[in-house]
Amino acid sequence: MSISLTPAAADRVRTFLTRRGHGLGLRLGVKKTGCSGFAYVVNYADDLGADDIVFENQGVKVIVDRDSLGFIDGTEVDFVKQGLNEAFRFRNPNVKGECGCGESFTV
């Protein structure tokens, strides 16, 4: 089981954690929503829960709750800038389909 970060994503997380002045790493999960079924939830982790699993990649901790891991195991997280837009992007090998707006996915 693994979650990985590209160098761009790792740099972005490190930059934001430094700006915040605190935090353990990146929290990644899923929630049931959208027209395809699931959406990614991304936040910064300030603590660990009993069901959290911690991955470390490029010096950055990625924290995933046990319930979400089955949906995102093997995912690579990237950070992309396109013009004025910037966002985390996910290469999830478990995805079977995505909605037209790109906000949700099916596994």
For this entry, give a set of tags.
107 residues, alpha/beta, three-stranded mixed beta sheet, 47% strand
Short description:
By secondary structure, the protein is of the alpha/beta class. Helix content is 20%, strand content 47%. The mean pLDDT is 87.
Describe this structure in words.
With 107 residues, the chain is an alpha/beta fold. Helix content is 20%, strand content 47%. The strands form three sheets. Strands 3-2-5-4 form a four-stranded mixed beta sheet. Strands 1-6-7 form a three-stranded mixed beta sheet.
Whole-number mean pLDDT? 87
**Number of separate strands:** 9
Strand order of the largest sheet: 3-2-5-4
**Any idea what the radius of gyration is?**
14 Å
Structural class: alpha/beta
Query: Could you give the distance between the termini?
Result: 17 Å
Proportion in helices: 10-25%
Order of helices and strands: EHEEEEHEEEE
Low-confidence stretches: none
Coarse shape: globular
Report the portion of residues in β strands.
Answer: over 45%
Number of helices: 2
SSE inventory with pairings:
Elements: E1 4-5, H1 7-20, E2 25-33, E3 37-45, E4 52-57, E5 60-65, H2 66-72, E6 76-82, E7 85-91, E8 97-98, E9 105-106
Parallel strand pairs: 1-6, 2-5
Antiparallel strand pairs: 2-3, 4-5, 6-7, 8-9
